[in-house]
Amino acid sequence: MVFDEGTEFGARVARRLREEQVVWLTTVTPAGAPLPRPVGFLWDGADVVSVYSQPGARVRNIAANPRVTLNFDGDGRGGDVVVLSGAAHVDTSAPAADALPAWLEKYAARIAGFGLTPAAYAARFSVPIRIRLTRADGR
C-alpha cells in the first residue's frame, strides 16, 4: 500500500478514493507534455485504481509512457491536496464498465445524466485502464 490509513493523511486519501466521483488523470504525451483530464474511477481498496477511457490520446500516451498521476481537487485554500502517482496499463482482460456492478452503482446517475444507457456508456468508454499506485503526496 502506498499510504497508511492509520494516519490522518492516509485516512483522507482513502476517504477520497472511496467517495469522490472524479479525479484528474494526467498522462504524458510522446512529446513530453502533461495531459490532465477528469475521469471516473474505482479504487480496489489497496493499490489499484480502475478507469474506463475512450480510445485515443490517453490510451496512446499510456502505451508510450505508463507513468501517470491522479490528482484530487483541493479545498480552494491550498489544503486537502492529494496527488497519487502510479503506473498505468490497458487491461484487456477486464470486464466492460456495464458488466462491473460496483462501477454501475457508483456512476448510474452520472451515466443517465449523460443521456446514455450503461451499454452505450460502456461502448463509448471501452478501454479499461488499471493504475497501480506507487506513491501518495499531499497536504
Describe this structure in words.
The protein is of the alpha+beta class and 139 residues long. It has one domain (8-138): Electron Transport, Fmn-binding Protein, Chain A (Pnp Oxidase, Chain A). The chain is 29% helix and 34% strand. The protein contains 4 helices and 7 strands. It has helices at 8-19, 57-64, 101-113, 118-124, and strands spanning 23-28, 34-39, 42-43, 48-53, 67-72, 82-90, 127-138. A 7-stranded antiparallel sheet has the order 2-1-5-6-7-4-3. A hairpin with a 5-residue loop joins strand 1 and strand 2 (34-39). The protein is globular, with a radius of gyration of 15 Å. The mean pLDDT is 94.
Number of strands: 7
CATH superfamily (homologous) name: Electron Transport, Fmn-binding Protein, Chain A
Question: Which structural category do the helix and sheet elements fall into?
Answer: alpha+beta
Shape: globular
Mean pLDDT: 94
Q: Give the strand content.
A: 25-35%
The CATH architecture classification is Roll
Please mark out the parts with pLDDT under 50 across 5 or more consecutive residues, or reply none. Answer: none
Q: In which range does the helix fraction lie?
A: 25-40%
Order of helices and strands: HEEEEHEEHHE
